[in-house]
From TrEMBL:
Transmembrane segments: none annotated. The active site is at E169, E354. The lineage of its organism: Bacteria, Pseudomonadati, Pseudomonadota, Gammaproteobacteria, Methylococcales. InterPro entries: GH, GH_1_N_CS, Glyco_hydro_1, Glyco_hydro_1_AS, Glyco_hydro_1_beta-glucosidase. The keyword Translocase does not apply. One of its GO terms (molecular function) is beta-glucosidase activity. This is Beta-glucosidase.
Length: 447
């Protein structure tokens, strides 16, 4: 990786920040919205580490104008957000809630007035609870439910959104929601997990078809990727690394890019692995316009046959720096990941759709929040992204995670990723040093 003191990104490189609906909006049942599975899940005893919910979160539903002003102050060129499916369709299907559409229209209008490009994600984990009660993503019909919802958004909001994503991190939905039960809907099922993954990818493909019929601009898929390393040179740990790589990185991308799933998955799941219809596998190859990659860390794997798939476990590295999430700070892994995607999948246009770090931030003091470790995290990963461009990766933009401190899913409010600190007792926003650092990066188009 280059150590030059000054780097510049290509002209037209897109700089943004990202959030998701349930993490920031609050008011989940306001103005006719229906409950999501995350609203239901977060209200279950002991589901969330600190007992938090998304009932208020960052109150973005009511403070979106203030937040757009913050985006403008940061110089953001783009804002990646997700739409709450149950705001639009309270029962998940059928009846449209006009007030839900109106909220997103108002948000989009403010963004466009501020010269900020909207980048909308159709599904960022919050499925309408009414659909969850019909089996959720384990129900084959879920792909069609998603396509109907997508048609509505493309018709109603498509003239205001140039960049769409179908799904955010389907692997997390499967692994955390259906394998380990720590995310909504809280299931632990080796039988459900493969079907959930398959139906999510079918939903993505049908969503892209809906976009070709009704949408404008470009559409893509967002996946989380994490390079895998072996904890030792022994064959058992090398095999564990290979399984972990197939399970996390190749499962979804092989599906949509190659029309097949890694052979290792059938071996790992054994009798729980289904036989998939050939027509389904052909559907998964529906062409889309870009790939979004969320990158945070790497994992170092050792063999753990007693664990569920991928029968591996991650090992902490002595002397390495870790974030509050327990994730190793490893920027060179971003370069490696981007190169791997280019080499395996034919050089698609790529956006880094999430990248950031949770650190323990001090309270705001005299209007300042000093977060030097996050500044260095961003600096290192931006250099890694630039190195990937130098090596020929077709990288089009970068979105920092996250614009705001927010509801961090099963971990509640204890982990803060934001460029902007949120005092959740007062909803006061304070731009952190990392936010000002990122503002300067955008202004320079580099470091």
């Amino acid at each position: 990786m280059t150590d030059s003191s000054s780097i510049r990104f290509p002209d037209g490189f897109l700089w943004g920040a990202a959030t998701s609906a349930y993490q920031v909006e609050g008011s989940p049942l306001a103005d006719g919205a229906g409950p999501s599975n995350w609203h239901h899940f977060s209200h279950q005893p002991d589901a969330i580490a600190d007992g938090g919910t998304g009932d208020v979160a960052c109150d973005h539903y009511r403070r979106y104008e203030e937040d757009v002003a913050l985006m403008r102050q940061l110089g953001l060129q783009a804002y990646r957000f997700s739409v709450s499916w149950s705001r639009i369709l309270p029962e998940g299907r059928g009846r449209i809630n006009p007030a839900g559409l109106d909220f997103y229209r108002r948000l989009l209008d403010r963004l466009l007035e501020a010269g900020i490009q909207p980048c909308a994600t159709l599904f960022h984990w919050d499925l309408p609870q009414a659909l969850q009660e019909q089996g959720g993503w384990a129900n084959r019909d879920s792909a069609n439910w998603f396509a109907d919802y997508a048609h509505i958004l493309f018709r109603e909001l498509g003239d205001k959104v140039p960049l769409w994503a179908t799904l955010n991190e389907p692997w997390v939905v499967v692994n955390d929601g259906y394998m380990h039960g720590v995310h909504a809907p809280g299931h632990r099922s080796l039988d459900e997990a493969p079907w959930v993954a398959h139906n999510l990818l079918r939903a993505h493909a049908l969503g892209v078809q809906a976009f070709r019929a009704d949408g404008q601009g470009q559409i893509g898929l967002v996946v989380n990727l994490e390079p895998k390393y072996a904890a030792s040179v022994g064959p058992d740990d090398a095999a564990a690394m290979s399984r972990a790589h197939a399970y996390m990185n190749r499962w979804f991308l092989d599906g949509v890019m190659l029309g097949s799933y890694p052979d290792e998955l059938a071996e790992m799941f054994g009798q729980h692995w289904p036989r998939f219809d050939l027509a389904d596998m052909a559907l998964l190859l529906e062409p889309f316009d870009f790939l979004g990659i969320n990158y945070y860390t790497r994992s170092v794997n050792r063999d753990a046959p007693q664990n569920p798939p991928p029968h591996a476990e991650s090992v902490r590295q002595e002397g390495a720096e870790y974030t509050e999430m327990g994730w190793e700070v490893f920027p060179e892994g971003l370069t490696r990941t981007l190169q791997w995607v280019k080499q395996r999948y034919g050089d698609p246009p790529i956006y880094i759709t999430e990248n950031g770090a949770a650190f323990a931030d001090p309270p705001a003091h005299n209007g300042r929040v000093a977060d030097p470790r996050r500044v260095e995290y961003l600096r290192g990963h931006l250099r890694a992204a630039h190195e990937a461009i130098r090596l020929g990766v077709n990288l089009k933009g970068y979105f920092a995670w996250s614009l705001l401190d927010n509801f961090e899913w099963s971990l509640g409010y204890a982990k803060t990723f934001g460029l902007v600190q949120v005092d959740f007792s007062s909803q006061r926003r304070t731009i952190k040093d990392s936010g000002y650092f990122y503002r300067d990066v955008i202004a320079r188009n580099g470091l």
